[in-house]
Specification:
about 230 residues, mainly alpha, Methane Monooxygenase Hydroxylase, Chain G, domain 1, three-stranded antiparallel β-sheet, two-stranded antiparallel sheet, 7 helices, about 5% strand, disordered N terminus, nucleus, SLD5_C, DNA replication, GINS_A
């Protein structure tokens, strides 16, 4: 009975800690985390649509505030600090979106044929991906494919006898990434073969692991990439 009560209390405290941590995290912190994670992940992650929208609204508000400060003769130091916050937010947002577009360009065919990945894109990103595919197909057709025998005219396969799309670049999910967790996750089996022993992931320690072994935890925010 005592053990059950302890587990229940532990779960309640854990949930309370998560709620408190979420409340104390600003959009600037969330944007920086999204940017860092997207930059480090080999694959494209789900678009943080709500965060992007809030960041755009915040940028507009900060721009208006800086203009008001300047027109009202506010202390130049305050204006400079406000401008620095604005520049930082604009950099993070632009860089976050640019990294995603670069991944789309690189893996557009793989993303397009994989529903799970396709659904991670925003509507605007899907339009961009469709334009990329159209441009690629036209370029391949004019420069190479039109000059090849029929059985080699696919932009996805090396020949008609290929069973898979062996000419479509895919992200290397086996790549090593640096990660950390903000709380103890206990012992995790990071080796799918089961040969290696489970690893205890302790808060704030850095680990070099294969991305595919931790990606489910990255998706739900329990592990941060750095």
């Amino acid at each position: 009975m005592e053990s059950g009560s302890g587990e229940g209390s532990s779960s309640m405290f854990s949930a309370a800690d998560d709620d408190e941590s979420l409340k104390s995290t600003t959009d600037a912190d969330l944007l920086k985390r999204a940017w860092r994670t997207e930059k480090a992940a080999p694959e494209i992650l789900k678009i943080e649509a709500d965060l992007v929208q809030r960041s755009r609204e915040q940028i507009q508000l900060m721009e208006d505030t800086v203009e008001d400060f300047i027109s009202n003769g506010v202390d130049p130091l305050i204006v400079s600090l406000s401008q620095m916050d604005l520049d930082r937010t604009m950099f993070l947002l632009r860089s976050y979106l640019r990294i995603r577009l670069q991944k789309i360009e690189k893996y557009v065919l793989h993303i397009h044929k994989t529903p799970e990945l396709w659904n991670r894109l925003s509507k605007q990103e899907q339009k961009f991906a469709n334009r990329c595919i159209k441009d690629l197909e036209e370029h391949f057709e004019k420069s190479v494919l039109s000059k090849l025998p029929d059985r080699y005219k696919s932009s996805l396969k090396q020949s008609v006898i290929s069973e898979e799309d062996d000419m479509v670049p895919e992200p290397q999910l086996d790549a090593y990434v640096i990660c950390r967790t903000n709380r103890s996750l206990g012992a995790l089996q990071l080796d799918n073969s089961g040969v290696e022993d489970p690893v205890d992931l302790n808060p704030d320690d850095l680990y070099a692991v294969r991305y595919k072994s931790i990606k489910p935890l990255v998706y739900i925010g329990q592990i941060d990439l750095v």
